[in-house]
Amino acid sequence: MVDGLPARDRRSRVRDATTTPATADDDAAVDYSNLPPDIVADIHARLTHLDRLTVAAVFGAAGHSMNPEAPWLAIPGGETAPAPPTKLYSISDRRAAAARAGEAAMRGCFFLGGSSDGGWLVTADKRSRLRMVNPVTGAHRALPAITTCPFFYTTSWAGRGSHVNLTAGPFMRVRHGGGPPPPPPPPEQLIGASLYTVTAGQVRQYVYRKVVLSAAARPGSYAAMLVLSPDLGAPMFATSDDPAWRVAPSRDGVEDAIHHRGRFYSVTYTGVVEEWDRRGGGGGGFTSRTVATAPLKPDDLKNRKYIAAAPDGKLMVVVKFFKDIKYQTRGRDGYLRRTHTVTDMRVLFKLLVLDDEESGRWRKKEEEVGDAAAAAALFVGVNASMCVAATSGGDLAGGCIYFTDDDVARGRPFDKSKDDDHWRYREDDREIVAGVYSLEKHRAHKMPVLDRRNGNADADDSGGGGDDDGEDDGEDDDDDEVKIWPPPVWFKPCTSAASSSS
């Protein structure tokens, strides 16, 4: 007799355990809620960076309070099996690994945003079908098709595939609130006055811009805001109880949006901050009210703008732009060292903080905004913008903006051979696919370049803008750079019970 059981019974139990496959019900029957918190913390601390997310989701579903994760970077993979899979990059661990869960739902997809705190990404496959995916748990669910909006419909021709058509006239009238028709579009604008047609695969590149999910989104209970391309401008909304895209009026056009305090907030191309609410609390469309207008300069109207919420809840408008910077540097010219005037194309950011919504007062002076952002890290790009408190352990750098390229319509990574003005610059920040910008130093540097051979990243990831010693060594490391397209996206893994259990 061993362990209180006869040998025969013990052998029977071992045989049953080894021959009966484990099922999801068996896993669900395991009760992790009774584990002591110190044991949970010890287990979590011993795991690798990707296992840490998976186990945190399990423990979170069991009701344990897990330390929040810093945002991760999701890097799209290829469409076919030999192509690189979707990778998840950890800032704190400075390592990347292939996504294990949800890979089938993410393969060959564009990432078009998601939720700021629920751990969800929104993907668009090669036919531009939208889906919300949790890259940690593997849970996924389809979002409504674009053709649920009455202004979009599909056509198919033999040998030419499926196409999506937009009746632009009625669409623009709804976008402008039923007012007079807008002026004729400029010649370079893609959207015509009557009908606009793209292939099904081009919708995710030329029609979609970003999808923002509600804060507590999960399959079966969500609200989604679809921000369309600059040529279209209008936002569209869909909910789990009304799974069809509805166009909402926006005369100035929505450029970016977030979900904050239970509502959607957006910034227009003219800098107007709007709050969106559902008429009647349910079943109706979304309408907006003006919260404030950001004090933008005329040049800012054509620059990229994001909206975010600070850790204290105040709304912020982030402006991203590029500028020629000239400076002196010493370099070798044959046998001599000479001083040269060189030019960089640098990316710059500025923050505007809405200090008081009632009076519409903004903080725009550099020292005031710097104090507000010194203890926070901001994440902008294709994702719904996030602003999180910088950790004392140094995983995130305070006073920094973590950004990604979000120009999906460009259709390729920055290419020197096709961008004629690149030769003018010693350094060109337009090449940066994912980078970190220091608000104090006004400099950006690239995030570690991923090595596709082993998934490791360079160790130089301090979070702040690197110093430039002004020395031109004549070396060119462009050959080592990995071109990533479509752009990666930031997401924040969620370890709460509600999101993990879904």
UniProtKB/TrEMBL annotation:
Acidic residues biased stretches: 458-481
Domain KIB1-4 beta-propeller: 88-428
Pfam families: Beta-prop_KIB1-4
Region (Disordered): 1-29, 447-502
Name listed for the protein in its UniProt record: KIB1-4 beta-propeller domain-containing protein
Taxonomic placement: Eukaryota, Viridiplantae, Streptophyta, Embryophyta, Tracheophyta
